[in-house]
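Hello again, I could really use a second opinion on something today. I've dropped the whole record in just underneath, so have a look.
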Amino acid sequence: MGNTKAWIQAARLRTLPLSFSGIIVGTALARYQGQFNWPIFILALLTTVGFQVTSNFANDYGDGVKGTDNEDRIGPARALQSGSISRKALKQGILVSVIISMFLALALVYLAFGLDNLPYILVFMVLGVLSIWAAIKYTVGSNAYGYRGMGDLFVFLFFGLLGVLGSMFLYTKSLDWNALFPAVAIGLLCVAVLNLNNLRDIASDKKHGKITMVVKMGFEKGKRYHFFLILMALICFSLFIFIKGFGWKQSFFMLAFLPLLIHLKKVNQTTNPGNLDTELKKVALSTFLLSLLFLISVNIFL
């Protein structure tokens, strides 16, 4: 199935901090309610790794088969594009990743709910199956939703709402409507990372029929959309702070928005899409930092 280095590159481990952000914020919200469990936290992170790696393998496969990954693409070469992993081997890798992910998901929900809460287990396993479906159908198949401008919606739902609220529910067995504000904020920031990727790849995507939101809107409107995503995330967290009555000490996690605001200045000044490649890491890591600081804030000032 190919060499180890090629598989590690295909797994795109650099995407993991962003995918962890929803789990960490959901855990922080549960901790705010006095609920926490280390085994659930660790298994939730491992399950997220499984889903994210599955998504990355499938994205590599789907874009590679469709020809979207080619010499026009900006950024690191993909496994199928470069030939470091064959089409057959990558399909096998996706299958193995799916099996591992579902095993981890089953272990997680059993640990969180036990057999006494079978309805919860069934609901979360259905959500797990939907997560796998969403990970694969983003680029794979003739009706891949990532090629029809729906990637933003699915990222918002799965990385934001499901990631945050679902992980909180694993601890608390309940939902708090106030938790919607951080969940929406994390979802918007994850969409911002995808949008930045689509801004960077607008020319290649348009050429090869990948109709993203940016391709639909155009580069300049895509930049304004990017501003909207990040500023709305800032507003959502600000509303959460206001509703909960956090003081300035409890709100120090908002400092993570400073690099994001500086980032917006760079986006505004950018006219060449290729120059946005280095900004991807900044937004992803700033979102991860925000989630960590939020968890720290809750633990210190609980």
User: Anything to note?
Assistant: Residues 13-297 form one domain.
